[in-house]
Amino acid sequence: MGRLAHTRLLLTALALIALRPGVSGASTLAPFGPLPTPRQLAWHEMEFYGFVHFSVNTFTDREWGYGDEHASLFNPSAFDADQIARTARDAGMKGLILTAKHHDGFCLWPSQYTEHSVKHSPWKDGRGDVVRELGEACRRAGLRYGLYISPWDRNHRDYGKPEYLTYYRNQLRELLTNYGPLFTVWFDGANGGDGFYGGAKEKRSIDNRTYYDWPGTWQIVRDLQPMASMFSDVGPDFRWVGNEHGFAGETCWATMDMTKPNRYPGGSSIGLNSGERPGTHWLPAECDVSIRPGWFYHAAEDDAVKSPAQLLDIYYKSVGRGACLNLNLPPDRRGVIHENDVNSLRGFRRLLDLTFAQNFTRGAPVLASNQRGGGERAFAGANTVDGNPDSYWATDDDVTTPELVVELGGEVTFNVVDVREYLPLGQRVEAFAVDAWRDGAWVEFATGTSIGNRRLVRGPRVTSPKVRLRITQAAAAPAIAEFGLYAEPVLAEVPTMVRNRQGLVSLFTSTAAAELRYTTDGTEPTGGSTLYAAPIPLARGGTIKARTFHPREERIGETATRRFGVSKARWRVLAPVGDGRLKELPRQMIDEARATVWHAPSGGQAEVTIDLGESLVLAAFHYLPPTHSAASGAVDRYEFSTSEDGKTWVKAAAGEFANIRANSIEQTVRLASPAKGRFIRFVALHALDNAPAAIGVASASVRTDN
Ligand code: FUL
User: Fold this and answer.
1) Cα dihedral angle (312, 315, 321, 322), rounded to 10 degrees?
2) Average pLDDT score over residue span 654-661
3) Do the domain assignments include residue 82?
4) C-alpha 152 – ligand 1 centre gap (Å)
5) CB distance 337 to 331 below 8 Å
6) Which of 117, 213, 123 is nearest to 171 (CA)?
C-alpha cells in the first residue's frame, strides 16, 4: 500500500481515537501535538523538487523586472520543455514549479485577463504557452507540476487597489482549472514597492495582512486543487525556511506557533528557520535556493553554478533536516537548462547515488530496549530496517528514552546516518544519539535534535560491527519509521582560493598528499595542467579553475572556479566631505574580505569615489552587500559613474539591486558599453530600512580585449 493511501486509512483511525481522548491502549499509539494533513504528507514524500525561474528577466539580465518590459523581449530561441523536465528528473527531482508570473507581471501563458503575456511575444508567433508546454513535459517525465503566481505585479495599473485582487484571483482560477493537477501553488512574500503600474511609475505599498484577503484567496486553491499544498512565508501548508541559501536550522521542527504576531506572508522571518515546538500547527519548512547566485539566468553567472559538493551540502542541510529542497534551475535565453547546470546536477546525482546505493542496516537483526505492547509486530524494532516508511517501531507510553541496537553482520564502514519518524503520529522525538562499537565499547558517532520526515547526519568514517540508536529525549513514546546507515564515496578536496591586495592568488588544500593543478584560460584542469607552486599573479583579473589530484588513488574530484576583477593594489577610496573636498576612507570597503564592508556615517544617500590609480576600460563593477541576515543597510538603488580626471563624470549605470534582502549576494552590473576612466563613483541612492548604506566594492572588471 502506498504511504499516502496508508496515511488516509490511518488518519481515519486516528480521528476515531481523537473522539475518545485519553484512549491509548497497547495496540494503538496516540498522536502527539499538531499533525500533518494527507496533503502535507504527500508533499513531505517529494523531498526534492525544483523551481524554474523564466520570464522577461531572462532577456533583460535582471532579477526583478520593473513591469514596463515589452512582451516582445520574451523570445527563447530553442525552448525545450522536455530538456528542462528530463534534467530535473535525472537529478532526482519529483516535481517542477514554474514562475507562471513573476513580479514583473509578464504572463507565461496567454491569459484572457491581460495583454501582458506570451500572446504578444515573437516566440511561436504569439501562440506559445510555456505553462502548458512545461506541464505536459513534466507529465511525460513523471514529474509533478506546480505554479508560482506572484501576488506583487509591477505591471498592473490597479496594483494596490481592490480591483487588482479580482484580476489576481481570475488569473489564479485560470491557472488552476486549465493546466491539470498541481502539487503546489507558491505565493511569494515580496510585496509592494516601486513599479511601472500601467505607466504610473510610482511606489505602491500594501498591507500584506489584509490586501490579498489570504483566507479567501487560499480557499480558491482548496476548491479547485484540493491536493495542492500552498507555500507562503507561513503556509498554510509549508513555510519558508527564512533564507535563500537552502539551509534549514540544525534544529528544524515541522511545527510553528501561529498564535504569535507577525505570522502572515511577508511578516517577520523570526522562527522560520528552526520552527517552534510544540507549536499550534504542522507547518514544515521548504528550502528554496538557486543553483546559480541569482534566480534568473545570467550569462555572467555561467561560472558560478553551484558544484556537486555544494549541492550535496545543501541537500544534507535541507532534506537531511526534515525539510523539502526546492532547487531552482533557470532556463537560459535558448529556453533550456545550461550545460554547466546539467553537468553539476549530474555530478550531484552521482554522489547521492553512490552514497545511498547500499543501506547497511536493511534487514539486519535488531534488538530494541522496549517494544510497545510487549512484542506486537506492529511496533517491532525490525520495522526501522525494513525499507518501508509506513511501518514503525514504537515503545510503551512511559518509555520515552529507549534504544535500539542493529547487528551489521561484520565490520561495516559508514559515515551517514538516516533516521525518520512516522509523521502521521506527529513530531515526538526531541533529541537522539547514534553510537558505534569500537574496541569493546560504545563510542558516540552523532547526536541530533529534531527528526521529523528525515534526519541525515554526516560524520567521519567509522568502522563498526553494530550500531546503536538512542532516543535521549522525547515528548511522547517515539515512533521511528526508518534507521539507515550509508557510506559516502571518498572525495578529493575542493581547493579554496584567496587573493591578496597585490593581486596574487593563493590556492589551499588541507591534504598534503594531493596535487593542486590549475588553469587560467577557462578550461577544466587535468592531470597535465600547471602544478600550483606559488601564488598566481592576476593583477588585471581573470578566471582560475583549480582541482586536487591524488596520483595514487581514485577519488572523485571537483573543480573550484573563481573569477577575479582587476586587482585593487593601486586603489584609494575617497568620499566627499561637507565642503565638497574628497577625504580618504578606511580601506575595509576594498579589502578582499567578503565580511567587511564600509558603513556610511548616517542614513540617506551616500557616495564613494575610488581612484583606481590608472586609467582603465571598465566592463562591469561588483557591489558587495553586508553579510548579516537582516541585510539592513544593503543598497537597493544605485548609480555608477566614471571619470578620467575626478571632476567631469559620466553616468555609466543606474538601477536597483533586486531581492537583496532575501538573497544578499555579490551584485554584478555589466555596463551597457565599456567606460574609460581612472575614477569610479558609486552612489547609494537608497539602502534597506533607510539604514546607513553598507558598501563593499568587490572589484571592477576591465575589458579584456583592450
Ligand atoms: C523571492 C523573489 O523576490 C525572488 O525573485 C524569487 O522569486 C524567490 C524564489 O522568491 O522572494
Assistant:
1) -150
2) 91
3) yes
4) 11
5) yes
6) 117
Residue holding cell 581547493? 495
Alpha carbon nearest to ligand 1 atom 10, residue = 188
Domain-located, residue 260: no
Residue-averaged pLDDT of the chain: 92
Q: What is the DSSP string of 433-490?
A: EEEEEETTEEEEEEEES--TT-EEEEEEEEEEEEEEEEEEEESSS-EEEEEEEE-PPP
**Cα(479)–Cα(428) distance, rounded to whole angstroms?**
7
Total number of residues shown for the chain: 706
Nearest CA to 495 out of 529, 470, 469, 466 is that of 529
Give the per-residue pLDDT at 11: 43
The Cα diameter of the chain in Å comes to: 87
Closest CA relative to residue 525, chosen from 552, 557, 554: 557
- The parent domain of residue 443 ranges over 366-486
Question: Mutate which of 54, 184, 244, 660 to test ligand 1's pocket (most atoms within 8 Å of Cβ)?
Answer: 244
Say yes or no: CB of residue 288 within 6 Å of ligand 1: yes
- Considering only CA atoms, give the Rg of the chain: 27
Cα 304 to Cα 336: distance, rounded to the nearest angstrom = 17
* DSSP 8-state assignment for residue 77: S
Same domain flag for 194 and 333 = yes
Residues 107, 166, single domain; the answer is: yes
* Same domain for 133 and 229: yes
Handedness of CA 622, 628, 629, 634 (dihedral sign): negative
Query: 379 CB under 6 A from ligand 1?
Result: no
Q: Which residues pair with 699 in a beta bridge?
A: 622
Number of structural domains in the chain: 4
The domain spanning residue 84 has which CATH number? 3.20.20.80
148 part of a folded domain? yes
Residue 540 lies in a domain: yes
214 and 135 inside one domain: yes
Is residue 210 domain-shared with residue 333, that is, in the same domain? Answer: yes
Q: What are phi and psi of 618, to 5 degrees?
A: -95, 140
pLDDT at position 490, please? 86
Asked whether residue 155 falls in the same domain as residue 67, the answer is yes
Task: Look at residue 57 in the predicted model and tell me its pLDDT.
Answer: 98
Residue 423 maps to which CATH number?
Answer: 2.60.120.260
**Residue 704 confidence (pLDDT):** 55
Q: Is 0.70 surpassed by the pTM of this model?
A: yes
**C-alpha dihedral, 404 to 409 to 411 to 415, nearest 10°:** -50
Name the residue of 659, 661, 667 whose CB sits within 8 Å of the most ligand 1 atoms, as the mutation to test its pocket.
659
On whether both 155 and 228 belong to a single domain, the answer is yes
Beta bridge partners of 146: 97, 184
**In the listed set 463, 486, 509, which residue is the last one of a domain according to the structure?**
486
